[in-house]
Amino acid sequence: MTASHDSLLDLNEGSRPSQLALDLEAMGETEVSEGGSEARRLHGEALESARRDVPPLDVAALRARAKGGEVVQLSSWRRPALWAGGTMAMAAAAALMVLPGKPQVRAKGGPQVGWMVLHDGEVTLGDDDVQVHAGDRLQFTWAGQAETLVLLGADGTGEVRVLWPLDASGGPVALDAESGLLDGSVELDDAPGPELFFAVFDPASVDDAVSLVSDALAAEPSPGALVDWGDDRWDVDVLHVAKVSSD
Amino acid sequence: MSTAPTDAELAELYERYAPVVLRRARAILGNEELAQDAVQETFAKVISRWEQFRGESSPTTWIYRITTNHCLNQLRNRRGRRDKLAMRREELAPEPVGVAEHGVDAEAVRGLLETCDEETRRIIVHLYFDDMTREETARMVGRSLPTVRKRIRAFMAHARAHLTTIRTAASVGIAVLLAQLAQAGGLA
């Protein structure tokens, strides 16, 4: 690819077939077009090179990856694989079947999040009646039309933490489906008060999501009011999780 | 319709489409290990979304979308690593890497993508790495042509500003390094 003085990117003005067009041709999904011989030659070479270097197919590994998903670990998050045996996979499957955990008890527009909790080796789908304890681990699901999601947590002290994306410095992460299970899980600490989780959908940036929630926390300190605030917005879903004191 | 592909179906799809995924992931990521992993991830998605995949009129386009999402996530994840490297480099002399005489190379584009919003990243990947026209890109991302044009203009302005900053930092860094060497008697 060459670049001109006028363009940093040498954009294709239609004078050559795109890589997608060439891939569609190569896969037999479209007829081979005329022209673009140089682009076609280079694409063919690259495709042939890739054909030689494709990793061997490991069906079992692929199926396992398809079930569990890839998980990136952060300090406050744990790999779901650490969850007790097969209960994690079963709970994930169950959670995805009823995504998210709470729409059956709330009427809310827009995308939503749900949750499940691991307590004493047992996984339970989150609901209004489910209480959590310090040391429990929560994992979240989402469902609905949204391109990105930022999940924030706030405990009784009012401190807002970015829980997802796992690397907050990279900005909001694209959701590649209309529902799914977020990577990783969060372990609840022993800070007093309820746990509040805020899912902000399609924010301009992670910082914007944090500002939005921080402002809401300052204006509406009661959990009930914050849940109502979230119910009135398309782009925010608020989860209020009751935490039982360890005393 | 089955909810998962049989081993034979998977093998057939893999042989057919895995080279397409690898070729493209290599171009976008510029890293062989990550590109090979992108192949695995894409086919794991084929399994987990089998019914959706089977319903697609264009398997290649569907696979493109899955690969794009995965590669964008990979580019985002590497930012933290790059930040650490950049801090170390500033202690020495930052170099204007990736700035070609008349444009930017693939590695510079990857670096620029790390600082963009999600939609712009997607658009630039299609324009630059997939060599799509603006019209093809608009169809691929489901946006209007004016919106795509607006995103491109913003990216170009951002790219020029960013590259200017890199060049300036490089000049200053090299000057500081030369001064330090001179003071230490390293330069005659």
List keywords for this structure.
heterodimer, A: 247 residues, alpha+beta, six-stranded antiparallel sheet, five-stranded antiparallel sheet, 13 strands, 28% helix, 23% strand, B: 188 residues, mainly alpha, two-stranded antiparallel ribbon, 2 strands, 77% helix
Describe the structure.
The complex is a heterodimer of chains A (247) and B (188). Chain A contains 6 helices and 13 strands. Chain A has helices at 19-26, 37-53, 59-68, 87-97, 206-219, 223-231, and strands at residues 77-78, 112-119, 122-125, 132-133, 137-143, 148-154, 160-164, 173-174, 179-181, 185-187, 195-201, 236-241, 243-244. In chain A, the strands form 3 sheets. In chain A, strands 1, 2, 3, 5, 9 and 10 form a 6-stranded antiparallel β-sheet that branches. In chain A, strands 6, 7, 8, 11 and 12 form a 5-stranded antiparallel β-sheet that branches. A two-stranded parallel ribbon of chain A has the order 4-13. The longest helix of chain A has 17 residues, at 37-53. The relative contact order of chain A is 0.13. The model of chain A is unreliable at 1-6, 69-90 and 93-107 (pLDDT under 50). Chain B has 8 helices and 2 strands, in the order ααααββαααα. Helices cover 77% and strands 2% of the residues of chain B. Chain B has helices spanning 7-29, 32-48, 50-54, 59-91, 106-113, 118-129, 134-141, 145-183, and strands spanning 99-100, 103-104. In chain B, strands 1-2 form a two-stranded antiparallel sheet. In chain B, α2 (32-48) runs antiparallel to α4, α6 (118-129) packs across α8 and α7 (134-141) crosses α8 (145-183). Mean pLDDT of chain B is 76; it is low at 81-102 and 168-188. The chains are: A alpha+beta (247), B mainly alpha (188). Chains A and B meet through α1, α2, α3 and β8 of A and α1, α2, α4, β2 and α6 of B.
